[in-house]
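Shipment paperwork, digital attachment
Item: protein structure file
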Amino acid sequence: MMSICPVKYSLQFRAPDRHGVYKFDVNHKRKGSSSVEASLQVAIVPPRHDGYTRFLSSAWPYYVGSISTSVEFIFFCIVYLGGESGEEVAKRQV
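Attachment content:
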């Protein structure tokens, strides 16, 4: 004796990154078999900008590079602007 089991069809897809209401329709007709008609309406909302982590662990080289560049720039400004000029050094020696 043959047992009849319900068949389950599935599909996975990636949702678009846009707001919207999308309608998914299935209208499958086969000759000599029953037809399948299904409809599903879904509202898609992309994640909020604060839903992501603030700092990414894979971006540490960029963080270190930007911080070191800023520190070096500040150090250069202090040395360049705060250093003694050649005329002041010449006056002291005389």
